[in-house]
Amino acid sequence: MSEKKKFAERLNAALDFAGIPKKGMGRQSALVKMLGASHRSAKKWLDGGEFPPTSKLVKLSQITGVRSNWLLSGQGDMISAVSDDDDSKKEIAQEASVMSQEAFDIATDWMKLPESQRIAIRKVIHELVKNSV
Predict the structure, then answer these.
(1) Residues contacting residue 33 through CB under 8 Å, at least 6 positions apart
(2) pLDDT over 70 (residue 80)
(3) Sign of CA dihedral 97, 107, 30, 11
(4) CB–CB of 32/76 below 8 Å?
(5) How many CB atoms lie within 10 A of CB 42?
(6) C-beta of residue 49 within 8 angstroms of C-beta of residue 4
(7) Per-residue pLDDT reduced to its tens digit, 25-45
(8) % helix / strand / coil in the chain, to the nearest 5?
(9) Residue 107, C-beta contacts closer than 8 angstroms, at least 6 positions apart
(10) Mean pLDDT score, 43-48
(11) How many CB atoms lie within 10 A of CB 66?
(12) What are phi and psi of 72, to 5 degrees?
């Protein structure tokens, strides 16, 4: 099997893990929306016709929560190990495969924000969670 086909298998596994719609159910369109890619490019990535550019690989890794090295090469663990004492992170990792459409839409919008706004939003979310416990 070619390296591009192997990459496509890992990409589809990562997208499954992140709860992105299945192939034939909007996966290609979701990639186009998330990454600002063309439909033609997204199809090639999903089918093993070509590799995405490095900038898109990094974004895919962030969106799906899988390690970029694993995504590109298949080496190492798919996801970072989660410590046993951090139950909230463990729960998030276990529930990632059933991400709601709302969460997917929020994640897609999140990727479009500049880093300064992401930092501010993270602080607000952290405070909200801390104060609700």
Answers:
(1) 108
(2) no
(3) negative
(4) no
(5) 21
(6) yes
(7) 889 998 898 888 999 999 999
(8) 70, 0, 30
(9) 34, 63, 99
(10) 94
(11) 23
(12) -75, -45
